[in-house]
Amino acid sequence: MRVGLTLYGSLDEQSGGFRYDRKLVEGLRRAGDTVEVVELPWRAYPRGLLDNVTTALGDRLRVDVDVMLQDELAHPSLLRANRDLPYPIVSLVHHLRASEPRRLAPLYRAVERRYLATVDGAVCNSAATRDTVAALGVDRDATVVAPPAGDRFDPAIDDADIEARAAVLGGDTGGGGDSAGGEAADGSERGRGPGSEPLRVAFVGNLAPRKGLDTLVEGVAGADAAVDLTVVGRTVDESHVADVRRLVRERGLGDRVRFSGRLSDDELADALRASHVLAVPSRYEGFGIVYLEGMSFGLPAIAARAGGAGETVADGETGVLVDPEDSVAVARALDEFAADPDRLAAMGRAARRRYEAHPSWAASTARVRRLLAEVADAPHAVDPEVVS
């Protein structure tokens, strides 16, 4: 097949969605397909909508392919262009804006519904994403769930490694309190058993409100256990990061929370290998590849129930699910992990098994290829009443 891929920015971007796009292109080419990548300039949402005022973008998209994949992230720019393109279109949906708890969610829902009416099928990274896409009007029979593999690191981790890492915890959270660390009533350091270490927690993700870093910091502050938090990720929303840093200061967590910024893969692998738990209590995740990547190191996850995280994180088995913005539940989960090294190790082993059982990139690529072939062989039709 001759396949196209349209996306904002460069295929070399490092976020999970772009890694998915890149691995899919590699897999399609390995299977014998030709893939032409059309890279559009990054657009803020309002500027993307303005692309529909002219036909310039449509002219750029007139390439010779049997079927075009479009990263749904670029949907604001594609509403008009898609109406006149000569090939069938399959949307590659990692995450719908309409699914997020945003003030403008009704607007995003209307725009995404309009965009999805111009496509002939959809590749979804999770069952939750497919449900949302279908609710916005895409025929479920024209969709496929093809999750990312999460094998970015694929470290050599065995049960003994996972158990040894958990064994350094003291298993005693000590007295109560509203901040991590500090002194208990008997003068000992709260959360520390004899010879124990603090619970080491990693947050990995873009630093933006959706990812729930503020909820996690509040959870660390509310935990009785000693918790050391390493925050890994690039700043996307400077105002949000300033608010989180202020929260760290106000809660007296300056010696407990470390902002590492964006790390190389090797540096991130070292940070995950040294951690006990991965905690990313996002307000919404379409899939959440970071949970699977943490599980490759045998790390149980703390995640929110919203979206597709629950398809990877089994509550009480491979991690803990909390309600979005529930810092009290996060604190409780941290305390339970710190208090019970055996439970932490058991969940770490289960997390590693979950990673090992997850579909490979080859399996997901095969699912996508079947859908692309079906769409390429079917008539390309757009509902004129929806897009006019």
Automatic annotation (TrEMBL):
Comp. bias regions, Gly residues: 171-180
CDD domains: GT4_PimA-like (cd03801)
Pfam name, any one: Glycos_transf_1
Sequence ranges assigned to domain Glycosyltransferase subfamily 4-like N-terminal in this UniProt record: 32-148
Domain Glycosyl transferase family, chain residue ranges per copy: 197-354
GO terms of molecular function: glycosyltransferase activity
Region span, Disordered: 169-196
Keywords: Transferase
InterPro entries: Glyco_trans_1, Glyco_trans_4-like_N, Glycosyltransferase_grp1
Protein name as it appears in the record: Glycosyl transferase family 1
Organism expressing this protein natively: Halorubrum persicum
